[in-house]
Amino acid sequence: MEATCSISPKRTLRFLIIAAVVLTVIGIAGDLAPRFIESDFLWPIARQFDFVEEGNFVNWYQSTALLGCAATLAAVALAQKKSGGKFVWHWAGLAAAFLFLSIDESAQVHDTTISNLIAQIQPHQPDPPAASGSGAPDLSPLQKARWMLIYVPVLVLFGIPYLHFLLRLPRRTSALLIFAGCQYVGGAVVTELASDWYAGKYGDTDLLYPVLGNFSELLEMLGVAWCSFAALDYLATARQSVRLEVASLPGST
Question: pTM here?
Answer without folding.
Answer: 0.80
